[in-house]
Amino acid sequence: MINVSNFSSRGSAEPGTGEAGNLTIEANSISLDNDTIITAGTQSGNGGNISLKVADDITLGNDSTISAKAFNNANGGNLTIDTNFIVAFPDGNNDIIANAAQGTGGNINITAESLFGIEERLQNDFTNDIDASSEFGFNGNVSINTPEAGAIQGVSC
For the chain (length 157 residues), average pLDDT per consecutive 10? Predict the structure, then answer.
């Protein structure tokens, strides 16, 4: 797990106070598998932001998640992903989320040549989802920038 949050772990700050922090990763590729999580979580205020600049591809398998999630009244953080390809293996419950419970969902901005096996929809336990919603607040926005129409591909087994 790679994590930034305002949850209590060390120090004297009460859990859920202050900003969650930002996370930036620059890499040739990122492979998440077996419940691997990149997360920026918050319980109050504005969520942490995640920026991934990946030269080749990002692969997601077996319950892997990239998340800027907010709890309670907090607002979801933003996700910015710049890569060639995002590949989510089928039936893997792999998600890219920037959602919130009561606050505003975060924004997800993806720039990629193509996405395989993942699509924008509300997160559930059986599919690979891109979700910027809020359960009780305003939804965030999802922007997927690909060079050609139809670059979001489903993967069949």
Answer: 70 57 95 94 87 97 94 92 96 92 95 95 92 95 83 50
